[in-house]
Write a structure and sequence with these properties.
Number of strands: 13
Order of helices and strands: HHEEEEHEHEEHEHEEHEHEE
Structural class: alpha+beta
Strand content: 25-35%
CATH class of the largest domain: Alpha Beta
Distance between the termini: 29 Å
Helix content: 25-40%
CATH topology of the largest domain: Trna Endonuclease, Chain: A, domain 1
Largest sheet: 8 strands, mixed
CATH superfamily of the largest domain: Uncharacterised protein PF11572, DUF3234
CATH architecture of the largest domain: 3-Layer(aba) Sandwich
Shape: elongated
Number of domains: 2
Amino acid sequence: MTDPTPPDTPLDRAHAAMAAAPDDDALRLRFHERLADAELFLLLAAEATGDAIDPRTFDTEDGRFLVAFDREERLADFAGGLAPYAALPGRALAQMLAGQDLGLAVNPGAASETLVAPEALAWLATMLAAAPEPAEARPSAFHPPAGLPESLLAGLDAKFAAMAGTARAAWLVGVRYESGEEGHLIAFVDALPDAEPALARAVAETLRFSGLDGGRLDVAFTAASDPLAARLARVGLRFDLPAPAIPAARPAPGSDPDKPPILR
C-alpha cells in the first residue's frame, strides 16, 4: 500500500530533502542521523519473549531484509492488520544488526521508503559508537557564537527536541580558554547527572553527522544557580529541552539504546 499522506515525520522530511538533492552529502548524513534518532517499529514473526525478539525477514534479490516503520499505522498497513512488533530506537537497531548480514527496509510503501544495506548499517553503528573525548580547560571569556552553519544549529535543535527531561536548557557560546585557544561550547543547565554522558554523545553525533571535517564543539554542565549560567545567558544562543515525558510502565525490548534486544 502506498502512503497517501505528505511527509509528516522527521524521517519523511529528511528523506525528501535527501531525494531532492542526491549529490548533497550533508543531507544524506542528516537522513541517517534522523534514522538513528527515530523510534522504529520493527515487524516481528512472533511476539517478543523477554528481551529476545524474532524479526520477520524478507529475502530479495538485494539480500535479506528486516522491515521497520516510524509510525505504527504504517506497519499495520504493510502487515494487513495487527502484527507483533518491537519499538526501539534506530541506533539500537543499527547496533543490533551490524555484522549480521541483514539489511533494513525502512517505511516500505511510504514517501520515505528506503533500503539500508548491511554495510550501511555497519557504517551507521560505527558512527554512533564513537564517544566524545574528555578534556579539561578553563574558559577565560565567552562571546556570541559565530560562523557556525545553520545546518549544525538545526541539527542540535532537532537532537535536543528528542531528549525530553534530560536538562532544562543548553547555551551555545563562543569561548576563549586560558591557553589562548578559541572555539565553541555547549553548556547544559540543570542536566540530570545520569543524562550527562548521553547529552555529550548527542552533541558529538550532531557534529559528526553535520559533515564538518575537523569540527569541534566542547560540552560543559552547570547549574542554573551557578554564576556561570548568567554569564552564558548574556551572550549565548539558547536551546530549550522539552519537559520530561511520562515514562512507560514497562520498557519495551530495545528501548535502551545501550542494551539492544537479542535476536532469536
